[in-house]
């Protein structure tokens, strides 16, 4: 059986922090592609893979995000090399014939049940955001996740029907993509970290039955 050694576990968990300050070191497009190509293997229900990731890199695109950010999240986001919008596609079921080919009926199970679609999209895009953060850490990047922003403003700016200023294609021709959370990516400045807060002990958080 293969297991990760302590160095790898430290990198992913024990020494990984949530960063607010960044070193002046860029993040290449290649590493973002590598990141996605790892994170995509994490499990989702019916392999539905509802998360959509918008990697905001240019200052112009950052400015589109600024008005949606909580005041405490502006500086850390504007200075981060990359900010990812972790979003979910409420029409994820249209890709099930490709993603879950052995069960063709699955598409319609979702298509007929908007509540199931919403719960599945939110649950699994949150998981996929976590896979993305662990993949980032595994590749030596640092993360700064954030829910302190106005989701409706982000959705209007980035996912409104027929609106995509930065790409030639219309990625989101209908307003069926919604933001879940944001995550800054880069190389964190350890000197700006505050002491780490404790976590719950096993006995506080877990039950063995
Ligand atoms: C979903 C999510 C939302 C968060 N939202 C914010 C936020 O809006 N602003 C912020 O400064 N930190 C935010 N955080 C960071 C948490 O406060 C941080 O991960 C937690 O305190 C643990 O810190 P550590 O990883 O350094 O131990 C968020 C974290 C997560 C996972």
Structure description:
With 209 residues, the chain is of the alpha+beta class. It is built from nine helices and four strands; from the N terminus they run ααβααβαααβαβα. A four-stranded antiparallel sheet has the order 1-2-4-3, with helices on both faces. It is globular and about 55 Å long. The two termini are 26 Å apart. The mean pLDDT is 95. It binds flavin mononucleotide. Flavin mononucleotide (FMN) is lined by residues 17-18, 20, 72-73, 145-148, 181, 196-197.
Radius of gyration, CA atoms, in whole angstroms: 18 Å
Distance separating the two termini: 26 Å
Going across the major beta sheet, what is the strand order? Answer: 1-2-4-3
Quaternary = single chain
- Structural class, by secondary structure, is alpha+beta
Outline the low-pLDDT stretches. none
> Helix count, per DSSP?
9
Order of H and E elements: HHEHHEHHHEHEH
Q: Which small-molecule species are bound to the chains here? A: flavin mononucleotide
> What percent of residues adopt helix (DSSP H or I)?
40-55%
> Major β-sheet, in short?
4 strands, antiparallel
Write a concise keyword list for the protein shown above:
globular, alpha+beta, 209 residues, 4-stranded antiparallel beta sheet, binds flavin mononucleotide
């Amino acid at each position: 059986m293969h297991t990760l050694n302590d160095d790898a576990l430290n990198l992913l968990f024990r020494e990984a922090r949530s960063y607010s300050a960044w070193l002046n070191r860029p993040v290449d497009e290649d590493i973002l592609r590598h990141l996605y190509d790892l994170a995509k293997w994490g499990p989702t229900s019916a392999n539905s893979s509802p998360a959509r990731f918008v990697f905001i890199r240019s200052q112009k695109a950052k400015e589109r995000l600024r008005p949606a950010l909580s005041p405490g999240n502006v500086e850390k986001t504007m200075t981060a090399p990359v900010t990812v919008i972790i979003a979910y596609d409420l029409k994820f079921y249209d890709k099930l014939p490709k993603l879950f080919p052995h069960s063709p009926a699955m598409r319609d199970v979702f298509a007929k049940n908007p509540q199931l679609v919403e719960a599945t999209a939110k649950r699994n895009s949150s998981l996929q955001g976590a896979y993305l953060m662990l993949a980032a850490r595994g590749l030596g990047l640092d993360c700064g996740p954030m829910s302190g922003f106005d989701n409706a403003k982000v959705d209007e700016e980035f996912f409104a029907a027929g609106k995509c200023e930065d790409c030639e294609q219309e990625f989101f021709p209908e307003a069926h993509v919604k933001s879940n959370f944001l995550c800054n990516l880069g190389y964190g400045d350890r000197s700006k970290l505050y002491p780490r807060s404790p976590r719950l002990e096993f006995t506080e958080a877990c039950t063995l039955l």
